Amino acid sequence: MLYEINEKALKLESEGRKIIRLNLGDPDMATPPEIVEAAYAAMKAGKTKYSSSYGEKKLREKIAEIHGVKAENVVITPGSKWGVFATMFLMLKGGGNVIVPTPYWTAYELIAKTLGAQTKLLRTELEDDWKVDLDKLEGMIDKDTRMIILNNPNNPTSKVMDEETLDGIVEIATKRGVTILSDEVYGAIAFTKTKSILEYDGDCKHILSNGFSKTFTMTGWRIGYIIANKLLVDNITKLNQITVNNVPVFIQEAALKGLELREKISSAIKLEYEERAKMASKTLAKAGLSFSQPDAPFYVFPKRPGLDSEKFTLDLLDKGVAVAPGTSFGDYREHFRISLTAPREEIKVALDKISEALG
Ligand code: PMP
């Protein structure tokens, strides 16, 4: 339904309709000019050749320094989505199962399905502040469980996991010998501190997936990274070798520039999204919706009891606003997801239309 809505929104736009698109996690802001300039300079300097499938040494070293790991634990991937895919491919080859808390980013389940692995969904609820029930989690682990995927901060709730719950999950996973893949693409721009999976073990028993798309508004550049034990890093590199070979070096140089300027760039991005989140929270609360306050960009995932979110989403699209139905993130038909990825004035108009449509 997520993709159906997007196609429909594009079609309406091509027919001349104005659609405010709050249905995808693709920020409206431009990639910072310093990053664009760095790519251009690298291209002009002839950095347009094949290169290492691990990624460029300087970039791996910088990422390692930021996360407090060794450069040998870092591999550069064409987008973090590819990093998640490659990790799941290597961990779930030949079957097994993976536990994923919901609501979730659908790619995890779709990837598992493609690999012939089973996904065990662990439901969390708004009313429990989206907390993972640790007993339920432990009860779901069986002899075939190969990994747990966490998305912290979460898409679509923008919730940062509280430390106590995360501590509990790591303890259970470590005790039961299950690897955690922690997708932290929204971590660096979260409004509250997000404890990283790497804070638990310096030996990289667990895996971090991260990227540049969200932190630096670089969705179309396709660059991300995995931090893991050396064996997994070597094996992802082999997958890179037989597929994409390497992320273009000029893109890696641009990403490095982003990391060098990360304080300045991410604080500006955070500020803007925090303002948008405040604005959305006010209007949505007035409209009588329940939701958790976003701890991170870009999403709000409100609930209205009795709502048929797919019908609501289609009706709203007719009124010129695209959002995503809750069913795109698991069994959450009473919810819908708003991406605050448009200029404030447009978000304001869209929020008013949403309130109006809810009656
Ligand atoms: N993880 C999550 C939770 C996401 O929401 C997204 C993008 N929607 C990604 C990963 C993929 O990001 P990238 O552009 O780095 O592939």
Topology overview:
Elements: H1 2-14, E1 20-21, H2 33-44, H3 57-67, E2 74-77, H4 80-92, E3 97-102, H5 107-114, E4 118-123, H6 134-140, E5 145-151, H7 163-176, E6 179-183, E7 207-211, E8 224-227, H8 230-242, H9 249-260, H10 262-286, E9 299-300, H11 309-318, E10 321-322, E11 324-325, E12 336-339, H12 344-358
Parallel strand pairs: 1-10, 3-4, 3-5, 5-6, 6-7
Antiparallel strand pairs: 2-8, 7-8, 9-12, 11-12
Helix pairs in contact: 2-9, 3-9, 4-5, 4-8, 10-12
4'-deoxy-4'-aminopyridoxal-5'-phosphate binds at residues 25, 79-81, 105, 151, 155, 183, 185, 211, 213, 219, 224.
Protein model, in words:
- The protein has two domains: about 1-25 and about 265-359, Alpha-Beta Complex (Aspartate Aminotransferase, domain 1); about 35-260, Type I PLP-dependent aspartate aminotransferase-like (Major domain) (Aspartate Aminotransferase, domain 2).
- Helix 3 runs parallel beside helix 9 (about 250-260).
- The model has no long low-confidence stretch (mean pLDDT about 95).
- The protein has helices spanning about 1-15, 35-45, 55-65, 80-90, 105-115, 135-140, 165-175, 230-240, 250-260, 260-285, 310-320, 345-359, and strands spanning about 20, 75, 95-100, 120-125, 145-150, 180-185, 205-210, 225, 300, 320, 325, 335-340.
- It contains twelve helices and twelve strands.
- The chain is globular, with a radius of gyration of 20 Å.
- Helices cover about 45% and strands about 15% of the residues.
- It is an alpha/beta fold.
- Helix 5 links the parallel strand 3 and strand 4 (about 120-125).
- The strands form three sheets. Strands 2-8-7-6-5-3-4 form a seven-stranded mixed sheet, sandwiched between helices.
- The structure holds 4'-deoxy-4'-aminopyridoxal-5'-phosphate.
- The site of 4'-deoxy-4'-aminopyridoxal-5'-phosphate has 13 residues, from helix 4.
